[in-house]
Amino acid sequence: MSLLFEPTPDGAGRYLDWIVSGLGWTLSLALGAWTIALVVGTLIGVARTLPKGILPRLGRVYVETFRNIPLLVQMFFWYFVLPELLPVRIGMAIKQMDPPWGSFVPALICLGLFTAARIAEQVRAGLQALPRGQTDAAFALGFARAGMYRLILLPQAFRIILPTLTNEFMTIFKNTSVALTIGLVELTATAREINENTFRTFEAFGVVTIVYLVIALLAWQIMHRIEQAAQLPSLASGKSRP
Fold first, then answer.
1. N or C: lower Cβ tally within 10 Å for the chain?
2. Closest CA to 47 of 32, 62, 37, 36
3. Do residues 152 and 76 make contact, with C-beta atoms less than 8 angstroms apart?
4. How far apart are CA 214 and CA 212, in angstroms?
5. Max CA separation in the chain (angstroms)
């Protein structure tokens, strides 16, 4: 791993500094996209469980659109196509954003909305797994529909789907690597730049592989602790309370 401590071609630092910078952009992109995905996915998931109206149909269109188009194609759409579809002044403003924000913002939106479609289906499944009596009891107690979802249904649904949310939380870190295709210098792009400058492929990608593994393990540990904290005592370890 001596490569990390060698000076970069521009003499401004070491290759370790490049790795740290790439890690920073990867974490920023993943956490920002996860926030968008969780908020949008929850709203879409709730909309899909409403009994009637146009919202369930719109929710289904959203899910089927974002879930069935490859992530790479969506990334290209947000970066190359969207500025051309917007009014000229807005499109030019997007194109003229200073790097790396010109790549970061489209990647953030793309990854957030793509993951939101997956989370929406998980939220819908969690809500539909609850007994119908929960809804009937909430209405009988005078809850409005918004209050029923916020205070009764969603807290229970999230406890059910936490394991699948853990998987999405880990996956979103890996999906950030797609952003290199539009010029964002995250971890994978950093490894490629180091390889192009040193031709030491094994060391460059080996270090990044270890970093991704550590991120995945930390993400799993965080979500596992959340699962344990949110688990109902009566369901812990498969035991029932006396």
1. C
2. 62
3. no
4. 5
5. 71
Residue 58 pLDDT > 90: yes
Write the pLDDT tens digit of every residue in 86-125.
899 998 998 889 889 999 999 999 999 999 999 999 999 9
Residue pair 111/79 in contact by the 8 Å Cβ criterion? no
Confidence of residue 6 (pLDDT cuts 50, 70, 90): confident
Amino acid at position 220, single letter = W
Ordered structural domains, the chain, with CATH: 2-230 (1.10.3720.10)
Q: In angstroms, rounded to a whole number, what is the distance separating the alpha carbons of residues 24 and 16?
A: 12
Taking residues 177-199, what's their average pLDDT? 93
Kindly report the CA angle at 21 between 19 and 27, in degrees rounded to 5?
Answer: 100
CA distance 32 to 92: 24
> Residue 154 is encoded by which pair of tokens?
């969603």
Contacts of 149 (CB under 8 A, 6+ apart): 46
Residue for token pair 């592989």: 209
- The answer to whether residues 104 and 186 touch, using CB atoms and an 8 Å cutoff, is no
Structure tokens at 19: 């790795």
Would you say 100 and 25 are in contact if contact means Cβ atoms under 8 Å apart? yes
Instruction: Report residue 7: phi and psi, to 5°.
Output: -70, 150
Phi-psi region of 53 (alpha: psi -120 to 50; beta: other; left: phi over 0): left
Structure tokens at 3: 């490569």
Q: Stretch 122-145: mean pLDDT, rounded?
A: 91
